[in-house]
Amino acid sequence: MGVSGTMRAVRITRHGGPEVLEAAEVPVPAPGPGEVLVRVGAVALNNTDLWTREGAYGRPGDPDALSGWRGPLDFPRIQGADVAGRVVAAGDGADGRLVGRRVVVDPAIYDAEGRDANPVGLMGSERDGGYAGYVTAPAGQVHDVTGSPLTDDQLAALPTAYGTALGMIERSRLLPGETVLVSGASGGVGLAAVQIARARGARVLAVSSGRKIDAVRDAGAHDVIDRARDIGEQVRAAAPEGVDVALDVVAGDLVSTGLPLLREGGRWVVAGALGGHTVTFDVRRLYLHNAQLIGSAMHTPAHFGLLMDLARRGGIRPVIAAVHPLEQAARAQEELARRTHVGKIVLRPWDLPATAPDAA
Questions:
Q1: 64 contacts 117 by C-beta, under 8 angstroms
Q2: How confident is the model at residue 3 (pLDDT cuts 50, 70, 90)?
Q3: Which SS3 state, helix, strand or coil, does residue 304 take?
Q4: Which secondary structure element, helix H or strand E, spans residue 105, and what is its range?
Q5: Which pLDDT score, from 0 to 100, does residue 57 have?
Q6: Domain range summary for the chain, segments of one domain joined by +
Q7: Secondary structure (DSSP) of 190-205
Q8: Taking a C-beta distance cutoff of 8 angstroms, is the pair 9, 23 a contact?
Q9: What are phi and psi of 166, to 5 degrees?
């Protein structure tokens, strides 16, 4: 049985600035075969929301083309990849036992079945997302977290940022005791990488600046590298023998500066381009030192399963910077773009407080 009627949603009908976000009353979607309908408790913002809205991803062979995450968008599109909520209906063939359960949605659209599939699309880009009262999702990508001690706001912070960070860490093969350098450490993915790497037993050097330094240190960084000063000089002072792993969402000039900082056999993992998508570096620093430059887009189903295990036991507590009602999505995206905050910005589509965990 579905939910009839209409719902509030915020969607885009074209690429552009925050002004293209429009609030609308739209029909509640019906779950298709194998899908469930989730009442959205909270939806977190990500940089991908900004870039999808702007069409800033480019296309192979045409880096300046207006494009969504993996190609042209079908407008209108409801944004929002990161959803926590409760299942209220199941479509034909979906697991009806999920109805009534508190869940987090894996927002990736995968290229295949199996634990190691690659994401080739994203909820909020290639299909409608969670800037709405309800959203549909494949039942196999809806994870039951009913017993989690985390609030809906915290759970919604996990999928893209923490999933991307965990994907980077898994692909880097980070080991306890290794030294890891995290760029953009005050942002969603960066802060998640700091927290997860610290929990994995790594020594964490985090790049940040200004008033954010204390917050990054509080999140688990052993040392904070001030972005406003010479990064290479500071890293060499903090880790004279070099860095084993770099978890990089900045790219740009940092790659050319940072590759010589890797130890023999070091791994530089890139999952963003906040500092620019065109990179120049001395390739000799790559092959002469058996270093690896690894691209990492989000997570696999196996990575997301590990993340949900953390969520169920409260192994990581996401930092929430701000919470806004759904109608303030444009204001929230502008706040995200200013990058003056630490942690995640969350929207709530219902006029309710953050959902507390269910009583056991």
A1: no
A2: confident
A3: helix
A4: strand 102-105
A5: 87
A6: 6-157+318-348, 164-295
A7: HHHHHHHHHHTT-EEE
A8: yes
A9: -65, -40
Q: Which residue has the tokens 């706001």?
A: 153
Report yes or no: 221 and 185 within 8 Å, Cβ to Cβ. Answer: yes
> Residue 328 and residue 5: Cα distance in Å, rounded?
23
Give the model's pLDDT for residue 354. 42
Segment (H or E) for 135 = strand 134-138
Q: How far apart are CA 159 and CA 167, in angstroms?
A: 11
Region 279-291 average pLDDT? 94
Topology of the domain covering 6-157+318-348: Quinone Oxidoreductase; Chain A, domain 1 (3.90.180)
Burial (CB count <10 Å: 0-12, 13-18, 19+), residue 160: buried
Both tokens assigned to 91: 């479509």
Round to whole Å and give the CA distance between 81 and 128. 9
Q: Cα–Cα distance between 41 and 64 in angstroms, integer?
A: 36
pLDDT digits (tens, 9 = 90+) for 27-71: 999 999 999 999 999 999 999 999 999 998 888 888 888 888 788
CA 164 – CA 54 distance, rounded (Å): 21
Can you tell me which residue has the tokens 């552009």? Answer: 16
- Please confirm whether the linkage preceding 76 is cis (ω < 30° from 0): yes
pLDDT at 2: 65
Contacts 24+ apart (CB under 8 A), 69-76: 69/121, 69/122, 69/125, 69/126, 70/120, 70/121, 70/122, 70/125, 70/126, 71/126, 73/12, 73/15, 73/125, 73/126, 75/12, 75/13, 75/14, 76/11, 76/12, 76/13, 76/24
Topology of domain 164-295, CATH:
Rossmann fold (3.40.50)
